[in-house]
Amino acid sequence: MSILQKILTLFRGTAHEAGQAVVDANALKILDQEIRDAGTELSRSKEELTKVMAQRQLQANRSKDRFAKKAEYETYIAGALRQGNEQLAREVAERLAAVENDLKNDEQAITSYDNSISQLKTAIAATERKLARVKQQVDTVKATEAVQRAQTAVASRHSGANGKVTTALDSLERIQQRQAERGARLEAAAQLESEAGEGDLNKRLQAAGLLPESTSVDNILERFREKPVQQLSHEPLSLPAAEIKETDKVERKD
């Protein structure tokens, strides 16, 4: 096989795949059109059946007229023979023979029409049953297709929602990571600043016990625990004599 033939084969294969894809994508539309075409053909078959039945009826009417003509010719022949007119009887008999031949042809034609009508009726009835079943199946297929499209849409929306939630969680994780990194940098900066100033020196002096402790409630209570307070008497304290004299002088002046 030459290269050109292979290329042509490739084109045919590609065209077939593309055509099949188009057919699959529009399967329901094609099916609906095929059903409409089948319905149209069924209507035409019914029209043909009507024509055949009409032709059969016309043939039956002609045959009926011939039967009447046959009876008439038979009467003429009998009358001519009674009169002894052999020649006239023969002429009428010739016409009667033609009528009887026509009647035989009519009978064959009517039988043929009857067979055709029976076959057409059977075919039309079978086609109608098949078409009805196909329409029912098409309704089921359409309902299934609608349900599957709805399920696909729901699954797509659910997948999209999950994707959005996942994206939001990723964004939140990145924000938390940035905040943790920023906090670590701030702590490191504070530590460097403390080490560069007096803060670190004071901490080390305090740890060595060289800085005076700050006054606090706990320190005061601890000091009093180490040195118990003397019991106070209910009697007034005695003042020195010099202090008493000075007090009296002040009272006299007043």
UniProtKB/TrEMBL annotation:
<dbReference type="InterPro" id="IPR007157">
    <property type="entry name" value="PspA_VIPP1"/>
</dbReference>
<protein>
    <submittedName>
        <fullName>PspA/IM30 family protein</fullName>
    </submittedName>
</protein>
<feature type="region of interest" description="Disordered">
    <location>
        <begin position="229"/>
        <end position="254"/>
    </location>
</feature>
<feature type="compositionally biased region" description="Basic and acidic residues">
    <location>
        <begin position="243"/>
        <end position="254"/>
    </location>
</feature>
<comment type="similarity">
    <text>Belongs to the PspA/Vipp/IM30 family.</text>
</comment>
<feature type="coiled-coil region">
    <location>
        <begin position="89"/>
        <end position="144"/>
    </location>
</feature>
<dbReference type="Pfam" id="PF04012">
    <property type="entry name" value="PspA_IM30"/>
</dbReference>
<keyword id="KW-0175">Coiled coil</keyword>
